[in-house]
Amino acid sequence: MTPDLFENGPNAPTSVLAGDRRQTVPFSLLEKIRGKSPGIRAIQFLGLLHVPEGKKAGKPLKLANFQRNFVKGALAKNVTVGVLSIGRGNAKTALSAGLSLAELVGALEERPQPNREIIFAARNRDQARIAFNFLLGYIRGLPEADQSLFTIRRGSKLEVEFGGNGGGLARCIAADGKSVLGGSPTLAIMDERAAWERAKGDDLENAILSGLGKRDGRALIISTSAPDDTNTFSRWLDQPPPGSYVQEHRPSFGLPADDLPSLLAANPGASEGIGSSADWLVSQARSAIARGGSALSSFRNLNRNERVSIENRSVLVTVDEWLSAEVAPDDLPAREGPCILGVDLGGSRSMSAAAFYWPDTGRLEALGTFPAFPSLADRGASDGVSGRYSEMHDRGELSVMGENTVPPGPWLAEIVRQLDGIQPVCIVGDRFRVAEFNEALNKAGLGRVPFLWRGFGWKDGSEDIERFRRALFDGELKVAPSLLLRFAFSDAVTIIDPAGNAKLGKGRSLGRIDAAAATVLAVAQGARMKATPQRKARVQWM
């Protein structure tokens, strides 16, 4: 191999071959590929490469079953976009680099297009360099005669040019939409798509997809799970357009972080000697559980491939903190003692939510209601949560009432009917909606039930949030698994003023935190009631 091919400088070549020789120079590995379909040809080609780094460096590359399935599915006929979601450390970038090399040398087609163009897009230049180094590692493992057909550029641009079989150019770029304007790639790979900056990432994706149509190109979108449903990568998984192949390795939500079967579901490579071992994953899970907070949220998102937020500086409670309150429906405490009703009355076309809390037993229940128009399916699409609202409705956690708004009076009456004759000792709501609440209470026949006004600003909000958190952390809260509450608390954040006071806010503009707000009001009031000493009866002396 000529050393100059991997060097920069004024004497570094810009191409190895020129003119018509690009069409005739042989590439020896292609002679060993006999498959007809792109998927089979890709698998055969990858089997001829050698592992470039790690504990198996230098050994022939052997694909795991999940990798074979993805290659076949993503490169199948009539598929233009392949989407893979899997936990960190399962050789996503290594597989992507191998497929990039396969397209670069023209191995995916019996009669490949000339001057093929491959774009490997990553979140930033450092991530792009990792993919670039994998590509170079594969090239260094080729026979020397084949290596001489490649030109490497690693200055301001990270490029690999191939001089045989019609020629090709592979570029590794950062997520900047302007980087690919005017391009016409035959293969585009978007690595760690969920981690891209939202605006620039969407610009780059749109530029890539528009360029693919010029030459019937394909796109592969590969990443660990995004932190929420609104991320563009989440929408690829939840609402794939026609011509897409989706393969997602995500365990069921709510399982312990160290649950081995679900860890292996998110990390299928662990069972086949790829990436982290099962023992390492379990040990790291237990370490994350012990540390809690952002460490546990990050482990769930990155290693368990769960769709949970890794932002912890301002969240009301973390995912695992909330899950600690969930119990099986049969294990729920009884409806005993005084019941407190927390209410967050929705405005026009928004959700109204109610939370029932029994402070003596810790039992919590929550219900939400939307107006009928638009439909739950349309709301889910516009809010970026796919079919979540319809799923909540099927579970009995979300109802529909009214046309464009939820009528406060009939809604409160229906909410109280859910208590099966139990009369709440008090109702807690937002002071800002006092007039509407008074009208609603009278229409619902609740005029004699004491109503406690609370503000959602710094003063009342900070106290209620602290009391709610203390009750949750002390185990004084028990609730059946509820999608309504899970998603409400995943969107609920706290806004901190310079004095350290907190008030409730939305983590995203389309978030629905109404059920979380009602829960905070009810639980905080329950905590105040428990902390108030009971008055003893006066003794009358005769």
Automatic annotation (TrEMBL):
Alphabetical list of InterPro entries matching this protein: P-loop_NTPase, TerL_ATPase, TerL_nuclease, Terminase_largesu-like
Positions of the Terminase large subunit-like ATPase domain: 77-226
Source superkingdom: Bacteria
Span of domain Terminase large subunit-like endonuclease: 308-525
Pfam family for this entry, one: TerL_ATPase
Protein name: Terminase large subunit domain-containing protein
Source organism of this protein record: Paracoccus nototheniae
